UniProtKB/TrEMBL annotation:
InterPro entries: Glyco_trans_1, Glyco_trans_4-like_N, TPR-like_helical_dom_sf. This is Glycosyltransferase involved in cell wall bisynthesis. One of its GO terms (molecular function) is glycosyltransferase activity. Pfam families: Glyco_transf_4, Glycos_transf_1. It comes from the Bacteria. Residues 390-579 form the Glycosyltransferase subfamily 4-like N-terminal domain. Residues 593-738 form the Glycosyl transferase family domain. Keywords: Transferase. The lineage of its organism: Bacteria, Pseudomonadati, Pseudomonadota, Alphaproteobacteria, Rhodobacterales.
Length: 776
């Protein structure tokens, strides 16, 4: 028996040496050596087939071994590799977990499991138009005690963690990889991107500078990133330097287009498109990959007409662009929409404008006359916002939910949807408070592709939207169709844009859009200002109600969109008085025998004019002789400039703090709050300060007048928008004595009466019923 086996084995080895693998298999069958009885020989032929590149035979052999139920772990790994090559990620993951469990110790198994998870998530995101997300639990489980043996090991674990929202751990692993494998470019770029995601913009800028210096292939990307970062950091000289380097750099025309589109340079983007369209002949023809990238950038930024024009010029635009254009009516062989003949005509065709009204694009049935009517009680409400990060708008969003429930709306009928809730980016800051109210919460970042069916017409419409709107509508519309709320309420501009589209497509009866403190045009938002036509079309409809938190903000939107001011209702913010102590009713404030504590609570950015604030403090001390101690609460790009200016002015006693959100910790020891912004909406800081009984001083811009107590004891002081430090100090010095003596409870009472949560709930419910509010 042993001798017979040895002869069979020798023959199999000889046939494999001759690369006659199929003959070797047939020899085994003819010799009676079945898969079950002589597994090792079958595995040997499979290994030798693989080694000599005959993957078809190897795969067939492994399938026979595996189907027979006698496969070894090595065969399982080979099957997994085949599944990964075929992009059958479900099968790969199933095999790995079936054979090795969900927490394998073997590094090769962990690596493959990580690859199958990540590549499956990437395919689902790409195919469904969703943001790439990986499972947090799986990512943490695989990353635990994972020992990097190769750069690929590090790459897959870092990406799993990064796209699961575990940014700080991903950053830690990236730095480990850089130490272990040297500063490989892929780890440089990952650390730069993750640093930006966790808001360490200075570190991200340092890394992108290094990448721009040492990598020709990544130089364009790095310089584009630097231009964006320096604009956000308000570092003008560095921004100009990055833009100058980009102008001189040997980067693709697609990269130049991305800079133009992201920085709002529409004229440059149009000129580049014309150049690409007209240069697509002869020796100067662009590489196909570059022209495809160029067309995709146009599509992603809403310049769909230019993408159509490039295609008509026979510029390669790629399968995704072709498919999208064909589906939405711009088929080159004769579609339902007119094709542009010139660049000028193409520029006029923008997304989503060309699809308005959406009822026509989606071929929806017309609504009956008088729809949806006025006065009906909403049966269910869906509130939508971008995130629950630290911010005044997010606090007000949560306050609205609490006010509605406290006013009697059923918690199981009040739904809340958030696009982003990443813990590492602090986008979930108010989540515990929101959850405590009892409303139903939907995390749209976790919504799986295809959870609720979308029609082919809806999918075509979504594919043609600009990238940001596309991803938001793709996850919101299925939820709206499932819930069919009586009211769909978008909070802030970006969420409102998505709600306008999703609500229209789903036929929601009442759409409510709560806008920002000022219009995108006023605050120079380069992306949202492009949605002017969308907002104008949607807001003009009878079933759409629009609100702002101040009359100034409402009028600003009306002017921007050229709509009647009566279309915009004012629903003031609410102050949560559970966060503020009830102040005793004393007739006069006891003035402490110490220097006056003057505080500023604002982001350290150009708009807040912190340098003017510091110089006003300096003038109060040296010009008006006021004994004071200055406090600044906040963080931002100008922190270093503020420290330098304070030193130059001799304000060595300036106390700077950040990350504090408790009102008592901020305002408790202050005597006066000073705000000198050049642009404002309805400043929450003024409401909060007065809710703590503190008198306030502010430059009269935006909705400041609506936020400040204007008469009686404790009235605030309004300064000119263009006041000088010396004049501001003079006016403050004259105002201070009476302001400090004013009973704090009177200041707080003004806020309690004007900004009560009950009032917010009542006014919001009137809006939900379709009633216009008093515009006086």
């Amino acid at each position: 028996m042993i001798e017979a086996f040895a002869q069979v084995r020798r023959q199999v080895v000889e046939l494999c040496a001759q690369k006659r693998f199929t003959t070797a298999r047939l020899f085994l069958v003819g010799s009676g050596c079945s898969v079950e009885t002589h597994t090792s020989l079958w595995e040997y032929i499979a290994r030798r087939s693989d080694a000599h590149g005959n993957t078809v035979v190897a795969r067939a052999l492994r399938k026979e071994i595996w189907d027979a139920g006698v496969g070894s772990s090595e065969i399982a790994l080979r099957e997994v590799d085949d599944a990964l090559d075929r992009e059958d990620f479900d099968a790969a993951g199933f095999l790995l977990e079936s054979v090795f469990g969900s927490e394998p110790e073997h590094q090769d198994v962990r690596r493959r499991l990580a690859q199958s998870y990540f590549r499956q998530a990437a395919r689902e995101a790409g195919g469904g138009g969703l943001r790439l997300r990986t499972d947090r639990e799986k990512a943490l489980r695989l990353a635990a005690e994972f020992v990097f043996q190769t750069p690929d090991d590090a790459t897959v674990i870092i990406d799993l963690l990064r796209y699961a929202g575990e940014l700080h751990l991903a950053l830690e692993k990236t730095r480990e990889a850089r130490l272990q494998f040297g500063a490989l470019l892929k780890f440089d770029t990952r650390e730069a991107r993750i640093s930006e995601q966790v808001n360490d913009l200075d570190r991200a800028a340092v890394l992108w500078e290094e990448i721009a210096d040492k990598s020709e292939t990544q130089r364009g990307t790095a310089l584009l990133k630097l231009a964006n970062l320096y604009e956000r950091l308000e570092r003008e000289s560095d921004l100009k330097r990055a833009q100058a380097r980009l102008a001189l750099a040997d980067v693709s025309v697609a990269d130049r287009l991305l800079l133009a589109l992201s920085s709002g340079q529409a004229g440059t983007a149009h000129a580049l498109s014309e150049y690409v369209g007209l240069s697509n002949v002869g020796e100067n023809q662009l590489p196909t990959a570059v022209s495809i990238s160029f067309a995709e950038q146009l599509l992603d930024h809403g310049e769909i007409g230019l993408a159509v024009w490039l295609r008509r010029q026979r510029v390669p635009v790629g399968d995704r662009v072709k498919r999208t254009l064909d589906q939405i009516g711009f088929a080159s062989g004769g579609g339902t929409r007119d094709l542009p003949d010139t660049v000028a005509e193409a520029i006029e065709i923008k997304s989503p404008d060309f699809m308005l009204p959406f009822e026509k694009t989606l071929k929806l049935k017309p609504k009956p006359k008088g729809w949806p009517g006025v006065g009906a009680e909403p049966e269910s409400i869906l509130l939508v916002n971008a995130s629950l990060g630290i911010g005044g708008a997010e606090r007000q969003f949560v306050a609205l939910v609490g006010a509605l429930l406290e006013n009697g709306f059923p918690p199981d009928k009040l739904h809340v949807a958030l696009f982003k809730l990443e813990r590492d980016r602090r986008q979930d800051y108010f989540l515990p408070e929101l959850a405590s109210h009892g409303a139903v919460i939907h995390d749209l970042s976790e919504a799986p592709a295809g959870q609720f069916a979308l029609s082919s017409a809806e999918l075509r419409m979504i594919d043609a939207l600009p990238r940001a709107l596309r991803s938001d509508v793709r996850v919101l519309l299925p939820l709206v169709k499932e819930l069919q709320p009586s009211v769909l309420h978008g909070w802030q501009d970006a969420s409102s844009a998505a709600c306008a589209i999703a609500g229209t497509a789903a036929g929601v009866k009442r759409i409510v859009l709560s806008m920002r403190n000022m219009s995108p045009a006023t605050r120079r938002d380069k992306s949202l200002v492009l949605h002017e036509a969308l907002f104008k079309d949607i807001m003009a409809r009878e079933n759409v109600m629009v609100t702002a938190n101040s009359r100034v903000a409402a009028d600003d939107y009306a002017d921007w969109l050229d709509l009647p001011k009566t279309k915009f209702d004012v629903v003031p913010n609410a102050v949560d008085f559970d966060r503020y102590p009830a102040l005793p009713k004393v007739m006069e404030n006891e003035v402490p025998d110490r220097p006056i504590h003057i505080g500023g609570v604002f982001r350290l950015a150009i708009n807040k004019r912190p340098i003017l604030w510091l110089r006003t403090i300096h003038a109060l001390r040296h010009q008006e002789g006021i004994s004071l101690k200055p406090f600044l609460f906040g963080s931002g790009p100008l922190e270093k400039d503020i420290v330098a200016e304070a030193e130059a002015l001799g304000l060595s006693d300036l106390v700077m703090q950040q990350g504090i959100v408790d009102p008592e910790a901020i305002y408790g020891e202050l005597d006066v709050v000073l705000l000198m912004s050049q642009v404002e909406g309805l400043p929450n800081v003024l409401l909060e300060a007065q809710a703590m009984g503190k008198p306030v001083v502010a430059c009269e811009v935006g909705g400041v007048r609506e936020a400040v107590k204007l008469a009686g004891k404790g009235a605030g002081l309004l300064l000119s928008a263009h006041v000088s430090p010396q004049e501001a100090a003079k006016q403050i010095a004259a105002w201070l004595p009476e302001a400090r003596k004013a009973p704090p409870y009177l200041i707080q009472r003004h806020i309690r009466e004007t900004y009560a949560p009950k009032r917010l709930a009542e006014r919001s419910m009137q809006i939900y019923r379709g009633y216009r509010l008093d515009q006086a």
